[in-house]
Design a protein that fits this description.
Pfam families: WDGH. It comes from Macrococcoides caseolyticum. This is WDGH domain-containing protein. This protein is of the alpha+beta class. It has a domain at about 40-115. About 25% of the residues lie in helices and about 20% in strands. A 4-stranded mixed β-sheet has the order 3-2-1-4.
Length: about 120
C-alpha cells in the first residue's frame, strides 16, 4: 500500500470501511476532542511547539492540543489551517512536557467527569 501512496494512486484519508473514510473519522475525532477541550478550558491548551521547540512538518503546519485530566495528559496533533480555530483554549508558546501517554490512555478522559 505504501508503494501506491508514494505514487499518488491512493490517499489514506479516502480509504473507507464501507461506512466512513479515514478522513471523516479524523475530522470527527477533531470535533469531539474540541468539544471536550472547549468544555474544560481551565484544563486545556494548544501550542504550535512541543516543550522542546520542535513540531511535525513545516513550521506552523501542525499543532498539538491537550487536556490535563486527573489521571494525566491526553493530546492530539492536528493541521493548523484546518483545526486551530476550532479549539477555543489558551495558547501556550510551548506545550507541557509529554507525560508518556499513548492512545491506550484515552480512558483518562473519563476522569474529567468522574467528580461531576
Amino acid at each position: 500500500m505504501q508503494h501506491w501512496k508514494d505514487q499518488g494512486l491512493i490517499n489514506t484519508k479516502d480509504i473507507s470501511d464501507g461506512y466512513h473514510t479515514f478522513g471523516q473519522l479524523y475530522h470527527d475525532r477533531a470535533v469531539l476532542f474540541a468539544v471536550i477541550c472547549n468544555s474544560y478550558k481551565d484544563k486545556a491548551w494548544k501550542s504550535k511547539q512541543h516543550h522542546d521547540g520542535t513540531m511535525f512538518g513545516e513550521p506552523g503546519e501542525m499543532f498539538i492540543v491537550g487536556v490535563e485530566t486527573p489521571q494525566g495528559q491526553y493530546t492530539y496533533h492536528y493541521h493548523t489551517n484546518e483545526y486551530w480555530d476550532m479549539y477555543k483554549v489558551k495558547e501556550l508558546e510551548f506545550a507541557p512536557e509529554w507525560d508518556g501517554h499513548t492512545h491506550e490512555d484515552i480512558g483518562r478522559l473519563f476522569s474529567l467527569i468522574e467528580k461531576m
